[in-house]
Design a protein that fits this description.
heterodimer, A: 364 residues, alpha/beta, Rossmann fold, 2 domains, four-stranded parallel β-sheet, globular, B: 310 residues, 12 helices, 44% helix, 14% strand
Chain lengths: 364, 310
């Protein structure tokens, strides 16, 4: 059984060692690129969100490389992601690809269903030993990403951090199993710690939005690098480990994200699916932490984020920070995005010069 | 107290239920409806909402604007429709629409009790109690009224007439099918061409034998209803064609339309998908429907004809 899975940013660094530990051969699809999206567009419904199209592209490219089993998550929530797996299965079957698709549905659809699907993947080895290791690996990888965001605007020799980070992402494909991956992350952490830093007072930009488009740097045209290269530190709310915490671990412990609980209270009390509530709550949280600006990224026609955008647009007068909405779709070009970001950052610059203090930013 | 209820979007078909309940619970309250969608409302809606949101939601904002501006209502009743059916959710935009209106109209009083039938129809009672609490403090009286009230239908639409032949199934969300401004009077156009339009309604057929053909049951209330009706209709009625009314920017339609198009292809049913948005014109839609109906007509005439030209 040659297993493959869709890309989402650095997800492959966690999924690949996990399946390898379970004793499967893993085929990682080529990193998201123009061709992936072109293939995905050909097979997908027109108005579906972009992650769906990228997923299909990943699957087709992986099948061409010899994969015969696809592992995908399902869902029962109001966001369209829950129906991805079921529809992708039909589309691949109609297009004549001979693959087995394992869609791991949540317990909502019955425990037998869950066990039979998940069992195909997870039954072989003892999960209790592997899962904590995977979890700590996910935390370490996210820490590297955060470190990269911190260092990019501060490094002495420009481009050093990106060189280390790119090498890390390529080397990760060559590792096998959790141990090797862990060693690689440790080595990369050491390299990043030794980057010379110019101690500057760097302004922070917060990124909120739909999880796929803010984690995957092809989907958002590498927005973090663009902002980082312009001399701003990027901080975002959603990481892969945050997703694991929020959707798998917190429900077991009956815990809730306190930021979301506190900052979305008056605006959006109920869950509406996706991460719309997190978007609003973290936008307010970033504001309270004196960030210089907030960028909201989501794919075209994303259902929950449209509500979030609408709410944020109405809150604009209450928020004391500039807010930029970026809608990504398959037509988006990096030049257009760069221009908009430059204009946005210019606005932040001029505002902070006028008032003298970044902390006193206000629309009035 | 004047309470406004918009006759649009997800609240379409519920007006009678809500108005009846309010009249029972409080004598002072007066219910005001926004009525059918007008061009002015669509204009209001387009101006007051963000561009990415779907067309019905824009029209809905227009209804709210109309109620606030012209009718001078004291409060607007916008229940939060988390779920309208067992084991399903509504669309995220429908669940979030009270929040959206609340932030847009910060000074307006908005009553939004939660209607969540995800765990069964009996939870209508919880909704009614929560709604009633805004109008009365007498808990015992409220309980009595709620218990007497729950037998009435939550959603009420004008049922379609089914004939023996010349039936065309019009699929789409109820707020598109019944809103003549959004769909440019498509039911009338079909009727004028001599065909009989039939359309899905809620709560119609028993859903026991149906969901099996889907790869996975839909987790949206409306999608599940539409698909079930489609499935039931193609088995039990004689259909000449299927018209899908898709609204631009609707997330559910992007998946449901694909599933239904695939089934129509397998069933060999003539199929037409019309995408509606604020720019769609009467004439364009009329032309497309007429062409579709002509095509069906030729198909019927030439059913037994096999070309000798090979």
């Amino acid at each position: 059984m040659k297993i493959t899975f869709p890309h989402m940013g650095n997800l492959y660094m966690i999924a690949k060692p996990l399946f390898e530990e379970l004793g499967f051969e893993v085929i990682v699809p080529p990193p998201n690129n123009r061709k992936t999206l072109e293939i995905g567009k050909n097979y997908s419904p027109e108005f579906i969100c972009m992650p769906f199209k990228l997923n299909i592209g990943n699957f087709v490219q992986a099948i061409e490389m010899g994969a015969d089993t696809i592992v995908m998550f399902g869902g029962c929530g109001p966001c369209r992601f829950g129906y991805y797996g079921a529809l992708q299965k039909e589309i691949l079957k109609d297009a004549g690809f001979d693959v087995q698709m394992i869609v791991i549905e949540p317990l909502h659809y019955g425990i037998e269903n869950f066990l039979s699907e998940a069992g195909k993947v997870f039954a072989k080895k003892n999960l209790i030993g592997i899962l904590p290791k995977i979890y700590s690996l996910a935390k370490m990888i996210d820490r590297i990403e955060k470190r990269v965001h911190f260092l990019r605007p501060r490094e002495m020799v420009k481009g050093n951090v990106d060189r280390i980070y790119n090498r890390f992402r390529i080397e990760a494909l060559k590792t096998k199993g959790i141990e090797q991956m862990k060693k690689l992350t440790e080595a990369t952490t050491v390299l990043l710690d030794n980057v010379y830093v110019v101690d500057e007072n760097v302004k922070k930009i917060g990124i909120v939005g739909e999880i796929y488009t803010i984690i995957d740097d092809f989907a958002n045209l590498n927005i973090e690098k663009i902002i980082g290269d312009m001399g701003y530190e990027v901080e975002r709310n959603l990481y892969i480990s945050y997703w694991i915490d929020n959707h798998l671990i917190y429900p077991l412990l009956r815990k809730k994200d306190l930021v979301v609980k506190r900052y979305s209270k008056d605006i959006m009390e109920n869950l509406i699916g996706g991460h719309a509530r997190e978007t609003i709550a973290y936008a307010k949280w970033f504001e309270s932490k004196y960030f210089a600006g907030i960028v909201h990224v989501f794919p075209l026609t994303c259902m929950p984020e449209i509500v979030a955008k609408s709410v944020l647009a109405d809150l604009r007068n209450e928020l004391r920070v500039p807010l930029l909405h970026i809608v990504v779709d398959e037509m988006e070009s990096d030049v257009g995005l760069k221009t908009r970001l430059e204009a946005f950052l210019d606005l932040i610059e001029s505002r902070s010069e006028k008032s003298g203090q970044a902390k006193l930013l206000s629309w009035n | 107290m004047k309470i406004g209820i918009p006759n649009s979007f997800c609240y379409m078909g519920m007006e009678k239920f809500l108005a009846n309940f309010l009249s029972k619970i409080s004598d002072e309250s007066e219910v005001i409806f926004s009525g059918p969608t007008t061009n002015e409302m669509v204009e209001f809606g387009v101006q007051n909402s963000i561009e990415e949101i779907c067309m019905p939601a824009k029209a809905f904002i227009g209804h709210v604007e109309y109620l606030a501006k012209y009718q001078k209502v004291d409060a607007i009743l916008l229940p939060r429709l988390t779920s309208l059916r067992y084991r399903t959710y509504s669309c995220p935009k429908i669940i979030g629409i009270p929040d959206l209106v609340k932030t847009h109209y910060a000074n307006m009083r908005i009553i939004s009790p939660e209607l969540n039938l995800r765990n069964g129809m009996s939870y209508v009672n919880d909704f009614l109690v929560e709604l009633g609490k805004h109008f009365t403090n007498d808990k015992r009286r409220l309980k009595k009224i709620v218990e007497g009230f729950t037998n009435s239908e939550l959603l009420e639409y004008f049922p379609p007439i089914v004939k023996d032949k010349k039936n065309i199934l019009v699929l789409g969300h109820s707020y598109v099918i019944f809103d003549n401004n959004l769909n440019k009077g498509i039911l009338q156009i079909i009727k004028d061409s001599g065909y009989n339009p039939i359309y899905p309604l809620y709560h119609h057929i028993s859903d026991k034998d149906i969901t099996l053909e889907l790869p996975k049951p839909f987790f949206w209330s409306t999608a599940q209803n539409i698909y079930e009706y489609f499935y039931w209709a193609q088995k039990n009625l004689k259909l000449d064609g299927v018209v899908y009314l898709m609204t631009f920017g609707c997330g559910i339609d992007s998946i449901l339309e694909e599933v239904i198009r695939r089934s129509c292809k397998i069933l060999n049913l003539p199929y037409l998908c019309i995408t509606l948005d604020e720019h769609s014109a009467n004439v364009g839609i009329q032309t497309r429907i007429e062409a579709f109906i002509d095509m069906i007509g030729w198909r019927r005439e030439n059913e037994d004809y096999i070309s000798t030209h090979g």
